Amino acid sequence: MNKTTEYIDALLLSEREKAALPKTDIRAVHQALDAEHRTYSREDDSPLGSVKARLEHAWPDSLAQGQLIKDGEGRDHLQAMPKATRSSMFPDPWRTNPIGRFWDRLRGRDVTPRYVSRLTKEEQANEQKWRTVGTIRRYILLILTLAQTVIATWYMKTILPYQGWAADQSYGYGGAGYLGLLYAAPALRVANRYPHLVCRAVLLGVSRILDGVDGILATAYRAR
Fold first, then answer.
1. Strands 76-78 vs 68-70: parallel, antiparallel or unpaired
2. Mean pLDDT value across residues 44-66
């Protein structure tokens, strides 16, 4: 018994199929198993011709769903990884206006992204499910963010000087003391520097009106 006969005995073939194979040359064995009867210049490449036949007998499930493919040189081999699926590098236009999207839906316009339209119905259903889940998560995150902001603001008002909400009480003025300080003092400064008598009188009158409303002594800020 030589190596060729040992190789034939190890094949998962019936006794009739084994007896039909040549036992003189290993290259002839692979050529006999090859349905296309291809020849190779190198003896070491001869097993490539019998790949499909040996898989059909030893591992028939591997040939299902086009798992056995040919490479660029026409050799049979198993597909080790899924085919590359390339998508567009340009993102779909994202319309951020919720009112506009709602109006488009009312008018019956298609607002489905392009990548979703290329999916199957089953994939679209899965995509819609995850889009719904993502929307719920975003609203939950928004609510948590607003809630912690409100709570933090409520506690900060108790530890800030003058109790946070009443920071203008230290000046001894009314509830709009800051507004009077912002408007009366600049008006008085401009009036003191403006050379025209009529405009100066008008600006002084504005400052006195603000004094009467806010209780701020604008004369205290009069430019010297």
1. antiparallel
2. 80
